């Protein structure tokens, strides 16, 4: 490179720069959290484009979530100052769906195939297990789907499994039968489950070298983020993408007019794409989904000529946070020691907080968020992490009450709501008429007098006559059902057929977009009207959700004027955990530790650092379980830039019980001088507690498991009295209805005592009282639910 250096190298350290500029067939970047792996990957893409070594269409970048993909695309755009249309930056699943829809015919599918989520899989397995009486052998939809998924991640199918199974074991025989029937049912329904998306693409490439050659020719640069969490199927896919195109196939392509000349090498073939992967084995947290860090450790063997680059400087966190992270992960065996360092200074100490209860912990988090916010930190720069979704209940209750704006990332599960699945099933049934699951879902939703016996009769009729369930519905007159039931089935079949006609462009009325189609189906089926007219108050919320879905289809039409029904359904299917269609600005993010991977925040609250939660009790009996949980803790710690809070509760409500919790063993692994411990004022005899109490001095059941290495840690004193605290924490969200408050009013709050209203903002259910409490300071309260009364 001569002359002026590209600005996209600005600020990079020598190793990062090398990683951006290296050109060769395979590059492996291994580095700890926050060392710029994702940044380097992004700049590498920009560098390839800027130097015109690659066209956008020649780049395939794989990220872990759709959100990460969108961010990477934005960043490339920002660096280059222009969009890069034609570039594929997406998750494994999204890339595979795109390929499979295009190549559906070769894969034995129709392009509008359905994508089954885990709930769909379980419903299907439930039917199979029932038909086979397999529950008597201990099979459940849960354990069967877990086993099938695991096998699919290894690229095994029912036949290959059967070849190695002990077929004198009735349980094995039964499992093979379940697996076979499951595969068969999905095929018949023109459906794939999530694991199939990867596996089928691999099979497609292996079975159709000409198809594979087209993609190998197209994608010249493959880049994969978070490589430590790839499983065998994903690894195989990467391999397939990066294989060379044989000379005779290149020849054939050229003969058919595909432009390949400038890509061919001395042999006449097209060399394999260049591959760049970045990863950190210490952040491998998806072993339960088949992720295999051997993909990293054996990378150099798998891709000869690999260049390895290590990054060690961390640009994200303060040294205190990093030292804690290093100390924790240092307790895992079997790892290459790498020490992260930061030039950013020590920063603040980590704050530890011992709460009495989950509510108390939530109150602490909420109060600290307000403290940080008042000190100038934006809500969007703060995040609260937890191990299990159940922990959100207390957090949400308190945050709502304190009027802290927040959103649960990946936890809203909007598309998993029954009424949304119902409405979507109508769309799916139109897109993919073979989808028996969708048809059976809407057969009697809303209620139209078609009972389970009729449903079974239709299914058997379809099977006996080798026709689809949909066709069986059309032919239902010959089933000898009562006239009313037959009429109801035919009406539904006609509605779906009419809707399908609207999609056919040759039909004058056939260019309906997704929202028109959905509206047509909702009107025709009466689904929405029935919910709106229902007396069940829950149905009002359900109707609102469906209206929200209609609004989403309208947005979709606007944003994707050239996309149709199948594109919409694909987008819905692929919304992964860390993805949210909403804009995150201005809110605190709540998410599980798994979802937090790859993200960063100025302040992080890591809650529930207790035995049983972290490590999670389910991990206890699994080999490598506690080590994987430690990596999860490490991932959580290393998300924080400036401020890190570790909190635990001594009692936690779980499954309706109050359990006594013990501090997580991992806390002891953090050097004592890095944490400033505080504890709940509701139970403490010493406020503030900067001087940590010795862990091993405890005799009341909290000290067990802490003897041993390292410095003793701060530890919570015993709860004073359970009842006393329980009384302080209202367990239910109340509804103040239309309590009218105005500036100057005096109020009494259950927790904060008396105070004066300074101002009321917002309207309707979102009215917020800004209150100056006599002793508790200034608070903002959502009037509708705050535990307050006017005095
Ligand atoms: P993780 O392992 O958590 O995925 P990562 O290795 O991918 O982390 P990045 O997210 O790329 O790390 O970078 C962490 C932070 O450091 C980002 O805010 C990024 O902008 C910043 N950063 C990376 N490299 C540099 C640099 N050379 N100078 C300044 N900031 C940098
Ligand atoms: Mg990253």
TrEMBL record:
ATP binds at residues 31-38. Residues 10-318 form the UvrD-like helicase ATP-binding domain. Its EC number is 5.6.2.4. Pfam families: PcrA_UvrD_tudor, UvrD-helicase, UvrD_C. SUPFAM superfamilies: P-loop containing nucleoside triphosphate hydrolases (SSF52540). Signal peptide: none annotated. It catalyses: ATP + H2O = ADP + phosphate + H(+); Couples ATP hydrolysis with the unwinding of duplex DNA by translocating in the 3'-5' direction. GO terms for molecular function: helicase activity. It comes from the Bacteria. Residues 319-598 form the UvrD-like helicase C-terminal domain. Keywords: ATP-binding, DNA-binding, Helicase, Hydrolase, Isomerase, Nucleotide-binding. PROSITE patterns: UVRD_HELICASE_ATP_BIND, UVRD_HELICASE_CTER. PANTHER family: ATP-DEPENDENT DNA HELICASE SRS2, UVRD / RECB / PCRA DNA HELICASE FAMILY MEMBER. Belongs to the helicase family. UvrD subfamily. This is DNA 3'-5' helicase. It comes from Cryobacterium breve. The lineage of its organism: Bacteria, Bacillati, Actinomycetota, Actinomycetes, Micrococcales.
């Amino acid at each position: 490179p001569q002359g002026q250096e590209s600005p996209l190298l600005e600020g990079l350290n020598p190793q990062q720069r090398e990683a951006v500029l290296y050109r060769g067939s395979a590059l492996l970047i291994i580095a700890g959290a926050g060392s710029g792996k994702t940044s380097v990957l992004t700049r590498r893409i920009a560098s390839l484009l800027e130097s015109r070594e690659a066209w956008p269409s020649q780049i395939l970048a794989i990220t872990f979530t759709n959100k990460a993909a969108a961010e990477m695309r934005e960043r490339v755009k920002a660096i280059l100052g222009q969009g890069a249309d034609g570039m594929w930056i997406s998750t494994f699943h999204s890339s595979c769906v795109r390929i499979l829809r295009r190549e559906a015919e070769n894969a034995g599918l129709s392009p509008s195939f359905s994508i089954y989520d885990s709930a769909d899989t379980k419903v299907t397995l439930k039917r199979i297990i029932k038909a086979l009486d397999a529950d008597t052998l201990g099979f459940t939809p849960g354990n069967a789907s877990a086993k099938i998924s695991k096998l699919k991640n290894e690229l095994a199918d029912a036949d290959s499994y059967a070849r190695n199974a002990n077929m004198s074991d009735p349980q094995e025989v039964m499992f093979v039968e379940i697996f076979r029937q499951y595969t068969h049912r999905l095929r018949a329904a023109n459906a794939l489950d999530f694991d199939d998306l990867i596996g089928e693409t691999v099979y497609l490439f292996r079975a159709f070298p000409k198809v594979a050659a087209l993609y190998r020719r197209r994608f010249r640069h493959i880049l994969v983020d978070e490589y430590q969490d790839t499983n065998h199927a994903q690894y195989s896919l990467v391999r397939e993408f990066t294989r060379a195109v044989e000379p005779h196939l290149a020849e054939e392509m050229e003969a058919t007019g595909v432009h390949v000349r400038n890509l061919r090498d001395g042999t006449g073939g097209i060399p394999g794409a260049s591959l760049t992967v970045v990863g950190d084995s210490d952040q491998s947290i998806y072993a339960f989904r088949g992720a295999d860090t051997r993909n990293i450790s054996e990378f150099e063997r798998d891709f000869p000529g690999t260049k390895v680059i290590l990054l060690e400087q961390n640009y994200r966190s303060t040294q205190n946070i990093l030292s804690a992270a290093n100390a924790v992960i240092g307790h895992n065996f079997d790892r290459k020691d790498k020490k992260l360092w930061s030039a950013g200074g020590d920063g603040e100490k980590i704050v530890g907080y011992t709460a009495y209860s989950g509510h108390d912990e939530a109150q602490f988090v909420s109060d600290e968020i307000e403290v940080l916010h008042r000190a100038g930190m934006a809500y969007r720069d703060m995040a609260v992490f937890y191990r299990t979704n159940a922990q959100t209940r207390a957090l949400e209750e308190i945050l709502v009450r304190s009027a802290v704006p927040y959103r649960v990332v990946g936890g809203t599960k909007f598309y998993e709501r029954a009424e949304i699945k119902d409405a979507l099933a109508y769309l799916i049934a139109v897109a993919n008429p073979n989808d028996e699951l969708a048809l059976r879902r809407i057969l009697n939703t809303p209620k139209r007098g078609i009972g389970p016996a009729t449903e079974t009769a239709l299914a058997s009729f379809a099977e006996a006559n080798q026709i689809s369930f949909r066709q069986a519905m059309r032919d239902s007159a010959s089933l000898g059902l009562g006239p009313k039931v037959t009429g109801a089935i035919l009406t539904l079949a006609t509605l779906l057929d009419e809707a399908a006609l609207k999609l056919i462009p040759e039909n004058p009325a056939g260019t309906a977009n997704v929202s028109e189609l959905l509206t047509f189906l909702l009107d025709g089926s009466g689904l929405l009207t029935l919910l709106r007219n229902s007396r069940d108050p829950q149905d009002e919320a359900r109707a609102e959700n469906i209206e929200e879905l209609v609004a989403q289809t309208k947005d979709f039409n606007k944003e994707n004027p050239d996309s149709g029904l199948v594109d919409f359904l694909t987008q819905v299917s692929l919304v992964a955990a860390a993805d949210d269609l909403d804009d995150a600005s201005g809110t605190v993010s709540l998410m599980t530790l798994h979802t937090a991977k790859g993200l960063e925040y100025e302040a992080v609250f890591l809650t529930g650092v207790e035995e049983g939660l972290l490590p999670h009790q389910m991990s206890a009996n699994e080999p490598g379980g506690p080590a994987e949980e430690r990596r999860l803790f490490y991932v959580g710690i290393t998300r924080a830039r400036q401020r890190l809070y570790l909190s635990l509760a001594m009692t936690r409500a779980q499954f309706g019980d109050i359990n006594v919790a013990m501090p997580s063993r991992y806390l002891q692994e953090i050097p004592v001088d890095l944490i400033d411990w505080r504890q709940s004022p509701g139970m403490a005899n010493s406020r503030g507690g900067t001087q940590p109490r010795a862990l091993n001095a405890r005799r009341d059941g909290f000290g067990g498991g802490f003897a041993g290495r390292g410095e003793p840690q701060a530890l919570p004193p015993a709860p004073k009295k359970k009842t006393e605290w329980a009384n302080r924490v209202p367990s239910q969200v109340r509804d103040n209805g239309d309590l009218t408050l105005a500036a100057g009013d005096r109020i009494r709050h259950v927790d904060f005592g008396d105070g004066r209203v300074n101002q009321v903002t917002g309207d309707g259910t979102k009215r917020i009282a800004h209150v100056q409490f006599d002793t508790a300071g200034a608070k903002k309260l959502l009037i509708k639910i705050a535990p307050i009364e006017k005095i």
